[in-house]
Amino acid sequence: MSGISRRKLFGLGAAGVAAAGAGTLAVRSLPGEDATTHAAATSDAVPFYGEHQAGIVTPAQDRLHFVAFDVTTKDRAELVDLLQSWTAAAARMTQGQEAGAFGAVGGVPEAPPDDTGEALGLPASGLTLTIGFGPTLFDERFGLAGRKPKALADLPKFPGDALLPELSGGDLCVQACAHDPQVAVHAIRNLARIGFGRVSVRYSQLGFGRTSSTSRAQATPRNLMGFKDGTANLKLEDTAMLGDHLWVAAEDGADDGADDGADWLTGGSYLVTRKIRMHIETWDRTSLAEQEAIIGRTKGEGAAHGSAKEFDEPDFTRKGPDGESLIADVAHVRLAHPSSHGGVRMLRRGYNFVDGSDGLGRLDAGLFFISYQRDAHRQFVPVQLALARQDVLNEYIKHVSSGLFAVPPGVRDAGDYWGRALFS
Ligand SMILES: C=CC1=C(C)c2cc3[nH]c(cc4nc(cc5[nH]c(cc1n2)c(C)c5CCC(=O)O)C(CCC(=O)O)=C4C)c(C)c3C=C
Ligand SMILES: [Fe+2]
């Protein structure tokens, strides 16, 4: 820990810290349900069609398979055809069906099957498939440069970033979330199979143990540092705030710089991914008091220092008997809190990962951070800048991958496809 941050943190004082002390197989959508309606049982299907894509405010499922693709074709018509084929397969797979009409064993023996088969017999498992378009998709290849939203400008480089280019960026991404890892992997594998010759996988990431709750009906899960993560998240029940902070709004023609010709994104959002490696072994040798001071919340209850319960609003003005703030100036929750950034919020939807070990006796583990917001440059960037500059947590983490994607609105019906408004 650096001198300055340790001083600020330990200004908190130990006394201050202590004082703070069975569903069915393939369930089809019912009338009135859309992609913002949610599965009741973990085996059920989440509706695919709707105003917004599923997989954003959908209560976070247990498992993730995230993939970024490079588009290898230079032909716009081939790209559109791919998006149409992917949409049809996604509509089927999210409802617990095989990727294609013939399936793993129903086609002619001479041809490769139109489903790979490893999800045969498995229910829909809450599968959602959410697509995003990266900044590089809007280069000269597909005639999309004039339709690139201003807010899809590259993220800045943050202090301490150790990004690996081969694990960052991508023309397209698909986030697959499900309660069964085999179902999530099957979905991404089949999209990659369908895309053969038109896209290639740039990188992919498996995740387990969601690190955020996105609904008040969900208990707050824990990240690999052992802390409840997602307490102060935006939740699907916060309908008014979702309009303010999550969904891209229709252009209103006002001369306020907000309209940028990207009307195709109305009802969509922006997705940020950051693969954050944790130095878990160092964290595990850190005292409980120091861990709690770094986060600004207790490890057991998840309450902000000075508060009793997890969902009590943090009081950043409270001081301990030593006159120091109970929540340190450099505590993670103070630096990330909306009150430190003019009220901006984001919807976090990340997952734990363990990619084996690193050959040096350490776990290759951490957080695959995912956030959705209306404008990443106004929401994610200021928060991450503050964290990158001051967060004491930085001594235990390293950002190794980054992505920014425009997430189009939902697919309305079987005649629609992912990104139609962008290409028409
Ligand atoms: C730039 C955005 C954020 C990154 C990157 C980030 C990394 C990160 N966070 C934790 C653990 C916790 N974060 C918590 C709260 C929290 N974090 C962010 C943003 C980023 N975190 C926000 C906006 C908030 C909410 C702040 C608030 O409104 O109070 C918490 C506390 C519980 C909670 O509210 O979720 C924990 C714990 C880790 C370990 C991590 C990188 C590995
Ligand atoms: Fe955080």
Automatic annotation (TrEMBL):
It is found in: Cell envelope. It is an enzyme of class 1 (oxidoreductase). GO terms for molecular function: ferrochelatase activity; heme binding; metal ion binding; peroxidase activity. The keyword Iron applies. PROSITE patterns: DYP_PEROXIDASE, TAT. InterPro entries: Dimeric_a/b-barrel (IPR011008), Dyp_perox_C (IPR048328), Dyp_perox_N (IPR048327), Dyp_peroxidase (IPR006314), EfeB/EfeN (IPR006313), TAT_signal (IPR006311). Belongs to the DyP-type peroxidase family. This is Deferrochelatase.
